[in-house]
Amino acid sequence: MGPGGGAGVRRWAQTRAPPARLCEDHPMRIALIGGKGGVGSSLVEAWRAEHELTVLDRSTVPLPGVREVVGEADDPEALTAALEGAEAVVHLAAHLPHGSEAEQLPGTAAAIGVNVGSVLLAMRLARCLGAGSFVHISSLDVFARYGESPIPAGALPDATALYGLSKRLAEQALRLSVEGPAPTAEEGPLTITSLRLAFPTTAEAWPRWVTPLREEQAEPVLHTLEDGTPISSLHPEDLAAAVLAALRRERGGAYEAIAVTAAAHSIADDSAARLLDWQPRNVLGE
């Protein structure tokens, strides 16, 4: 059933029951879009024993214990195949920056296509196919000076560099999508959460950060603010707990953007504690 198979999508939407409440003790059917990267691999490792996972990724490397769909994140047919039957969706696919802003400039359209277009497409197909929850993996790079100086309470995203800007645009697209009625009758209700991650890393590298770009791989780095205060990276156990809490979120509005960091001093934002009842367990000095 592909995107051109709109009749199939409509038939599902018209006959499905309302999304089930995603309770804490309820194993879920979760689709991960772009699930073979660093963050996605952490989630698969944490969840596959308990939840029924479908992973959509361009990689053909086998991933044991999950249902796999090989394809691009912006391919409607691949997305439809991956989202079929999913109760919850995590969008992880991203066009990551390579080199300087000047070197990234020619790839602007490609970055927006993946980081914004595929997010909106996946969200709308999830609404058509009966999912109840959608988590968009965003970044605290939506703030231009995140990681340099503390972000004050109430600050609005201001990034203009390509990666941070594309994440801002995706958040705005999702927010605007829930402010009014869905553009088609086939699209049902959906709880949408953008998680603004800060330096997700591996268990081996924690509290340091490793880049997800293999061609730029170097020694793990412990980031610091301009005043030298260290910024702990996000441990994969804390990451998985935050995403799972977001998939089950009941507090807040239909759309929320939430900071997820192991360094509370880096941003004055308590939304993860308020809306997800989440706090990192792996913190420097503890």
TrEMBL record:
Q: Which Pfam families match?
A: Epimerase
Q: Identify the residues that the record assigns to the NAD-dependent epimerase/dehydratase domain, covering every copy.
A: 31-256
Write down the superkingdom of origin: Bacteria
Asked if the record carries the keyword NAD, the reply is: yes
Q: Which InterPro entries match?
A: Epimerase_deHydtase, NAD(P)-bd_dom_sf
Q: Which UniProt keywords apply?
A: NAD, Oxidoreductase
Write out the similarity annotation: Belongs to the NAD(P)-dependent epimerase/dehydratase family.
Cross-referenced PANTHER family: 4-EPIMERASE, PUTATIVE (AFU_ORTHOLOGUE AFUA_7G00360)-RELATED (PTHR43103:SF5), NUCLEOSIDE-DIPHOSPHATE-SUGAR EPIMERASE (PTHR43103)
Q: Please state what the protein is called.
A: NAD-dependent epimerase/dehydratase domain-containing protein
- The organism named in the record is Brachybacterium avium
